[in-house]
Amino acid sequence: MFNGRTFPGSQAEKSNERLTLSWVLRYVGPVLLACSTCIPAQAQCYVYVPTHKSNSVAVIDTSLDRVVAVVPVEVQPLAVAITPNGAFAYVTNSGWIFGSDSVSVIDTATNTVVTTIPVGSFPVGVAITPSGAFAYVANAVSNNVSVISTVTNTVVATIGVGTSPFDVAITPNGAFAYVSNQGSNTVSVISTASNAVVSTVSVGANPVGVAVTPDGAYAYVVNQNSGSVSVIGTATNAVTATVAVGGSPFRVAITPNGARAYVTNAATSSTVSSTVAVIDIPTNAVVASVPVGTQPHGVAITPDGAFAYVSNFYENSASVIDTASNTVVDTVNGVALFPEAVAITLLPNAQKCR
Q1: Interval 119-154: pLDDT, tens
Q2: From the centroid of its chain, how far is CA 165?
Q3: Which among 257, 254, 250 is positioned nearest to 275, based on CA atoms?
Q4: How do residues 60-106 score in pLDDT, each as one tens digit?
Q5: Residue 319 and residue 16: Cα distance in Å, rounded?
Q6: Spatial distance between the Cα atoms of 346 and 351, rounded to a whole number of angstroms
Q7: Which of 100, 112, 121, 119 is nearest to 55 (CA)?
Q8: Largest distance between two CA atoms of the chain
Q9: In what order do the strands lie in the sheet with 123-128?
Q10: pLDDT tens-digit profile of 224-250?
Q11: How far is CA 223 from CA 11, 183, 252, in A?
């Protein structure tokens, strides 16, 4: 001992070391082991959700299932599409009575708006070509579609369509854009080569959401007032099937393998609950009905096909559906006021979202 201290290397020092190690292993070890699972995971995917009463876009980290960023945009955003390389998110700002009539471009690396593009009146749906070169925006009050060059972020064409266009989906080969027209009960088919309407297809009442299968063979169109989905064969541009799905269906997303279509049913009453209908695409039969939050609006599937993220309009939340079991496995709260459409991007070097 020297001034009350134990000499290094002495028997007393070694005994103290053994006691200290024993204490650490007994009491601290379990805490360290438990805390190792509490370290935040590396983000794999981001989910972008416009929230039209908050004038912003909520960004959800799928590894945490919580909102990690809120990006201010213009007035009452409704829809979002992400470039194929994941670098930018294009958000429509409807403006309602305030007339934003614009598209905000978000840099996904920094989650900041880098530019704002004027478009037609009351923009709603937006889709980006597989090449990433153009964004197609449905303008509900102008009854037209604005075509934005993503290189210059300017409108390079304007295409007249039906009455009150709502949503846009583009075929995987980039050749055609399918636009649902709420007021006409039709779908306009645009050739992206000429930016002209080449066909008009009659569907159910008040068509809203639209999605194209990964093989490009079919367009699935949600008919809100008919409670159904019209299936359009893209080879003939004729309706080949009509699928009853539920009350006030709103949007649709298709799994990357083309096996299933997920449709949000927004109706809420004493007899009708808010659900997501799951359509088996080969048979066009509803094979599951998944209860989610109140009045689901948007839906998107993770790039690996494992999960569907659903925005719940009146609960300011997002439900996470496991597509293998078709059950809700998580709920993301705090998604600001009135979440709308959903888009998901896989981050660089990530293999799956969760």
Answers
A1: 999 999 999 999 999 999 999 999 999 999 999 999
A2: 20
A3: 250
A4: 999 999 999 999 999 999 999 999 999 999 999 998 777 789 999 99
A5: 54
A6: 8
A7: 100
A8: 95
A9: 123-128, 134-139, 144-149, 154-160
A10: 999 999 999 999 999 999 999 989 999
A11: 83, 11, 11
Q: Is residue 60 a contact partner of residue 49, using CB atoms and an 8 Å limit?
A: yes
Q: Which is nearest to 266 in space by CA: 201, 206, 219?
A: 206
The pTM assigned to this predicted structure is: 0.88
CA 339 to CA 163: how far, in whole Å?
Answer: 25
Mean pLDDT of 212-225: 98
Separation between Cα atoms, residue 214 and residue 220, nearest integer Å: 12
Kindly state the tokens that stand for 14.
Answer: 């070694």
Looking up tokens 């393998």 gives 257
HEC sequence for the chain: CECCECCCCCHHHHHHHHHHHHHHHHHHHHHHHHHHCCCCCCCCEEEEEEECCCCEEEEEECCCCEEEEEEECCCCEEEEEECCCCCEEEEEECCHHHCCCEEEEEECCCCEEEEEEECCCCEEEEEECCCCCEEEEEECCCCEEEEEECCCCEEEEEEECCCCEEEEEECCCCCEEEEEECCCCEEEEEECCCCEEEEEEECCCCEEEEEECCCCCEEEEEECCCCEEEEEECCCCEEEEEEECCCCEEEEEECCCCCEEEEEECCCCCCCCCEEEEEECCCCEEEEEEECCCCEEEEEECCCCCEEEEEECCCCEEEEEECCCCEEEEEEECCCCCECCCEEEECCCCCCCC
CA distance 255 to 269: 29
